[in-house]
DNA sequence: CCTACGATCGTCT
DNA sequence: GACGATCGTAGGT
C-alpha cells in the first residue's frame, strides 16, 4: 500500500490533484475524506509558493512526492499540501476541505463552535480539526502519525474552477471539488487589504 | 444567503 | 516594511 502512494502521486500535478478527492488524510484519531483540493504547479505557476525559486519555507516542495508541506499564514492559520510529481518539480496539492469520517468528537473539541460540516471546510479549518501545524511540515505520509490513503477509484463527478484567494493566475481552473458535497468551501476572490491608519 | 472588515506574524525583499 | 493559498463576526437582504 505504501509503495503505491508514491507511484500514484508521481505524475503531473493536474492529473494527480483530482485523484486526491476521496482520499483519506489521517492524523492520529481524526481522519478526513478529502472533498476539495487545488493544484500548484511549481515555478511555472504565479500562484505557487515555489514561483520565485527555492527558499527555506518551500524547500520541502522540491523533495520527493508523498510528503506534507505545511505553511503558516495570516499570522494565525496553517494550511497543508501534499507534495506531488517527480522530485524537483516543486508541485503540490493544497488540501482545502473534507468530511470528518473518524474522531468526530475530537474534531468537535478542537473547533467547538463549528457545525459538523464546517469542521474541515476550508484549508485552515481542516488543519485545525486535524491538529496539523508547522511541526508536521515535511512529514512522510506513507507511515507514522500522519497518513494519506488514496481511494481505489477516481471520483467520477468532480467539478473544476478558479483557485480561492489568489491574486496571481486567478484565471487557471485548478481547483477540484466533489460536486454537491456540503463540506466544500465557498469561493472567495482575493481581497485587497486596506492600510491601517497611521497613529 | 450575502458583503465587509480586522486580527496577527512568518516570510521574503 | 509589505503582504498573505484565511477565518469569525457583524450586519444587511
Task: Describe the protein.
The protein is of the alpha+beta class. It has one domain: 3-methyladenine DNA Glycosylase, Chain A, CATH 3.10.300. Helix content is 15%, strand content 27%. Strands 1, 2, 3, 4, 5, 6, 7 and 8 form an eight-stranded antiparallel β-sheet that branches. A hairpin with a 6-residue loop joins β4 (77-84) and β5 (91-102). It is globular, with a radius of gyration of 16 Å. It binds a DNA duplex (13 and 13 nucleotides) through residues 38, 40, 47-49, 52, 55-57, 71-77, 79, 81, 94, 96, 113, 122-125, 134, 163-167, 188, 190-191, 193-196.
Strand-residue fraction? 25-35%
- CATH domain fold name: 3-methyladenine DNA Glycosylase, Chain A
Number of domain modules: 1
Structural class: alpha+beta
Determine the mean pLDDT: 94
Question: What's the count of strands?
Answer: 8
Determine Rg (CA atoms, Å). Answer: 16 Å
Helix content: 10-25%
CATH class: Alpha Beta
| SSE pattern | HHEEEEEHHEEE
Shape: globular
Spatial separation of the terminal alpha carbons: 59 Å
The major β-sheet equals: 8 strands, antiparallel
* Total count of helical runs of at least 4 residues: 4
The fourth-level CATH homologous superfamily is: Methylpurine-DNA glycosylase (MPG)
Please name the CATH architecture: Roll
Low-confidence stretches: none
Amino acid at each position: 500500500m505504501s509503495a503505491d502512494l508514491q507511484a500514484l502521486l508521481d505524475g503531473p500535478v493536474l492529473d494527480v490533484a483530482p485523484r486526491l478527492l476521496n482520499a483519506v488524510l489521517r492524523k492520529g484519531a481524526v481522519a478526513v475524506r478529502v472533498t476539495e483540493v487545488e493544484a500548484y504547479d511549481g515555478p511555472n505557476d504565479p500562484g505557487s509558493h515555489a514561483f520565485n525559486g527555492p527558499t527555506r519555507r518551500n524547500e520541502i516542495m522540491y523533495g520527493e512526492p508523498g510528503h506534507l508541506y505545511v505553511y503558516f499564514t495570516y499570522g494565525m492559520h496553517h494550511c497543508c499540501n501534499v507534495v506531488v510529481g517527480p522530485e524537483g518539480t516543486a508541485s503540490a496539492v493544497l488540501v482545502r476541505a473534507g468530511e470528518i469520517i473518524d474522531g468526530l468528537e475530537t474534531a468537535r473539541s478542537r473547533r467547538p463552535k463549528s457545525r459538523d460540516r464546517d469542521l474541515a471546510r476550508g484549508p485552515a479549518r481542516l488543519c485545525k480539526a486535524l491538529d496539523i501545524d508547522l511541526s508536521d511540515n515535511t512529514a512522510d505520509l506513507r507511515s507514522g502519525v500522519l497518513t494519506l490513503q488514496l481511494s481505489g477509484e477516481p471520483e467520477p463527478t468532480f467539478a473544476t474552477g478558479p483557485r480561492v484567494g489568489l491574486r496571481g493566475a486567478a484565471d487557471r481552473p485548478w481547483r477540484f471539488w466533489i460536486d454537491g458535497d456540503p463540506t466544500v468551501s465557498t469561493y472567495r476572490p482575493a481581497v485587497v487589504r486596506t492600510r491601517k491608519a497611521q497613529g
